[in-house]
């Protein structure tokens, strides 16, 4: 399992560096997903199977969907259509694909080489998980949720049109459009 730990850690560091240095937000999100999956592999190699599963379900799954929706909400205009055509080129997918293949090989190796390390197969109820998360870790859970909420609010304000002091529903053009729709 030491081999899996080091390979997953290396993939996590490389993918995180690409997240930081990449200028394209969608590609940065792809590398962030790979980084989160690699961190899950690190948890698995350390024997924290439940933390690894939560990393995949919560972070690589649900939160990344939220980030993708935020990027889609920015609505960058017609230039995005041409940019999306550029994203379909194979050379742009080689990096994430290669790192994902390495992670897949490490996960298969780790699963095949795992021996019984005290996993007795007893089911844990949702109540026990909630008590564990909101007991000693309540501050960390609440801080993470506030950070994600703040990121969503910032993305909304970055993506909306620049009209200082106006509410979206009080624009002069919007009220004229509503009046013409009502009379028609």
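-> sequence recovered:
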């Amino acid at each position: 399992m030491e081999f899996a730990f080091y390979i997953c850690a290396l993939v996590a560091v490389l993918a995180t560096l690409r997240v930081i240095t990449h200028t394209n937000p969608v590609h940065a999100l792809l590398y962030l997903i790979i980084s989160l999956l690699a961190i899950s592999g690190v948890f698995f190699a350390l024997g924290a199977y439940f933390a690894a599963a939560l990393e995949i379900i919560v972070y690589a799954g649900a939160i990344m969907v939220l980030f993708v929706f935020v990027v889609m909400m920015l609505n960058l205009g017609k230039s995005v259509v041409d940019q999306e055509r550029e994203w379909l080129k194979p050379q742009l997918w080689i990096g994430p694909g290669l790192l994902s293949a390495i992670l897949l090989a490490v996960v298969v190796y780790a699963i095949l080489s795992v021996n019984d390390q005290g996993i007795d197969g007893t089911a844990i109820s949702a109540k026990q998980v909630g008590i564990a998360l909101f007991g000693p870790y309540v501050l960390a859970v609440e801080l993470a949720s506030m950070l994600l909420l703040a990121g969503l609010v910032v993305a909304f304000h970055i993506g909306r049109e620049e009209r200082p002091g106006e509410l979206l529903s009080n624009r002069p053009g919007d009220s004229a459009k509503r009046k013409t729709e009502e009379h028609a």
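The longest helix spans residues 49-73.
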